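Box 4.2: Ligand-aware structure prediction
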Amino acid sequence: MTRRLNVVDLTGRVAVVTGGAQGIGLAVARRLLSSGAGVAIWDIDQAAMTGALAELAPLGRVEALLCDQSQIEAVDRAAIETERALGPVDLLVNNAGIAGPAATVVDYDPAAWRQIVDIDLNGVFYCCRRLVPGMIARNYGRIVNVASVAGKEGNPNAAAYSAAKAGVLALTKSLGKELAGHDIAVNALTPSPARTRILEQLTEAQVTYMLGKVPRGRFVEVEEAAAMVAFMLSDENSFTTGATFDLSGGRATY
Ligand code: NAD
């Protein structure tokens, strides 16, 4: 049967999508632009950003900014440039992330561990600490933190990633409570595997393991993730905060 898709109205909103140059982030940026928002994508991959900008520019007001979100000063600079180009930021999608190398905890390279936590967890904190004050001042905001089912269950040979994503879930709960007195919703998304470039960082055995746990028996499409994010960022989502939106195809029911 043909699917009927709702289009949320984000006219006049300004969004930041980290890691927006490809994969889930690019699908989110596409969807937000189509819903009327101005969008800034922040990413470290210049080549992918050039391609993304060419695709996104015809859809609306879009900025592409180089930003390594593990660097606090880079986040502050990207925020200033975004505000200058598009105006105050209403919507934040903390989506950028890496998976890192596969290894057991005992064998994990400490430098790789720190890099994963710096990007996947600390970067989310840096983006929130810079953009939330403006949301509080305007008493409006929507934040989506893209975590992972790994953060709920812990995946073998991916402890750094799992721990960082668990941290993102806890950050989401804390920030949601801190901002609950405002019209600011902070929620997390926990996708199961999607066919994006991040999978190249995993072994075939890891992908097979993860996909085997998905009752729907397939990858989630990036457009399916984007549709849920668009709802989470919309005014339709006016009450739920500090929560985790499950996108695991039936894997995680808690
Ligand atoms: P992807 O590799 O296609 O996209 C990730 C983007 O983040 C890339 O454009 C990359 O350049 C960018 N990035 C990496 N490090 C960065 C940094 N330091 N600063 C700024 N940008 C940086 O992967 P994806 O699947 O689209 O991943 C998006 C999010 O979804 C990630 O947080 C990932 O952990 C999460 N996720 C993905 C899957 C999956 O199977 N694809 C499953 C669950 C969760």
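In the box above, the bound molecule is nicotinamide-adenine-dinucleotide. The chain has one domain: 14-243.
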